[in-house]
Sequence to fold (530 residues):
Amino acid sequence: RDIGTIAEMCISRKAIENYWVNDGPKTILIIILVLANIGVITERILQYTILDDLKIEITTTLGWGIPVARASGAALKLNCGIVLLAVLRNFLSWIRGTFIGTYLPIDKNIVFHIGTSFVVAFFTIIHIFSHYHNYYQIQEANEVLLVNLGILAPGADSPTTTNLAYGTLPGITGFLITLCMILMYTSAVRVVRSPVFEIFWFTHHLYILFYGLILLHGCSAVLEPPTFWIWFVFPGMVYLIERTVRVMRGSQSTIVLQAIAHPSRVLELRMRKPQFLYIPGQYVFLSCPYIANFEWHPFTISSSPDEEFMSCHIRIIGDWTGKLWELLNPDGVEGIVQEHMVTAPNGSPIIMIDGPYGAASEEVFGFDTVILFAAGIGVTPFASILKAIKHMLDVNPDQCRIQRVHFYWSNRDSTAFEWFIWLLAYLEQTCDFLDINLFFTGNLTPDQVRAAHHGGDLDHDAITGLNAKTTFARPVVKNIIQQKAQEYQGQRVGVFFCGPPVISKLLYDACTSVTNAREGTRFIYHKENF
Fold:
C-alpha cells in the first residue's frame, strides 16, 4: 500500500509538472486573483461583523444584507479595475516584450477578460439582491435608530424601498450600471457578435458610461466614503495613454495598391507600407471611414516584413466586410479588382490603419521546431511567418533559430487553397525546412472525384498541384501530435494554431497529453485570440 501511495504521488506530481508547461502562468494568475478576491471580501465582512463597533451595530440593526453588500461591492471594485487591463492591447503588446510577459498568460487575455466579466456579473447579482434586502430593512427600521447610525438625516422622512432603489444616487446609478451590463453582455455572445459585429462594437463602448457611473455610485458616502477610484486610477491612466496612442496611430491613412478577390469570398488588401515596423504573426486594426467612421476591425498581417507592401486577407462575413467587398469589388469577380486606390467615393481615405499589435504567433521564432495548424482563413498569420522564415534563411541563416516547420492546413472549400497555393508551391520547391500537409474536409465535385481517382499516382496533387498530397478527411489532431512527440522526444516544440475553438481544444489536449517535463518533451501550445 505504501508503494502504491508513493506511485500515486509521483504520478500526480508528474501530471502537475506536465500541466505547468502550458498552464503555469495562467494558474498562478488565477490563484493570485482568487486570493485577492478572498482578501477584499474577508476584510469587508470582518469590518461589519467584528472590527468596527459602529458597523457592527449597523449589521445588527439591518441584518446580513449589509456585510454581504459591502463584501460583494469590494469584489466588484477589484474586478472592474482588472477587467479593463485585459483588453488594453498596446499595454499588453508592451508587456509581451518585457520579462514580465514570460510570467503572464498574455495570449489568453480575451479568455481572461470574459472570465473576469462573469465574476463581475456574479458579484453584481449578489450586490443587487443584498441591497434590496437592505432597502426593505431600512423601510421597516426605527427612524431614530437610523438617524443615530448615520443612515438617515435628522428630520427626514423614513424612505421606502422604491425611493431608495430609484430615487437616490446609489439607486439610480446602480440601475443604469446594470442596464449597461445587460446590453454589453447580451451583444457579446457569439450569435450576435459574429454576424452583426457593429452591434457588439457600439454597445461595448458603453463601458465608458459604465465606469463613469461606478465612480458616481458611491459619492453619497453612505456608511463609508467612495473608494472605487483607488482601484480605477491605474487602469484608468493606462487606458487614457492607450486611447491617446490609438488615436495618434489610427490617423495613418494608406493607399490600397491592389485589392484582389480570391475564391470563397476572401479579399486581399495590399497596402502601402505604413510607418511602423511589424513582426510576422502580428495584426492590425483597419477602418474604412466611407463605411463606418468609428469602427475598427482586427486582421492578421499576411505579408512578410521584407515585402514591399503590407497585406491582409479578409474573409467576407458580417456587415462591415460585406460593405467593403461591395465597395472594392462591385462586380463580384475574382482577381485584381482595384489598383492604387487612395480615397473612397466621398473623398475620405480608403483605409486607415492602427497597429501593429502583438499576437501569439510572433513567439514562433523562439523554437527550433514548430508545428503550424491552420483552419480556413486562419492560415494568414502563418503565411507571413513562412515568408519571413524563408527570407531569414536566405539572407542571414544564423539569425533564424527555426530548423523544421510542420505545416497543417484544412479547408472545407477546395478553392480556398488557392489563397496561398503560389506561396506553398514556391516554398515546396525552394525550402528544405518545410513539411506541408493539406486536408480537404468538404465535398468534392464530380470532376474533382475523377481527378483525384485517376491522379493518385501522379507526382502532383490533383487538387492543389503540389507535390504534397491532399488528405480527403479531417486531420486527426491527437494522432498527429503523438507521432510528432515520438519524433521529437526530449525536445521543446512550439505548436501554433489559428482557427475554430473546437480544433483548438483538441490541439491543447493533445499537446498536454504528450508533454513529459521530466524527459524534456514539451509541446508548448499557442492560440491566436482576437
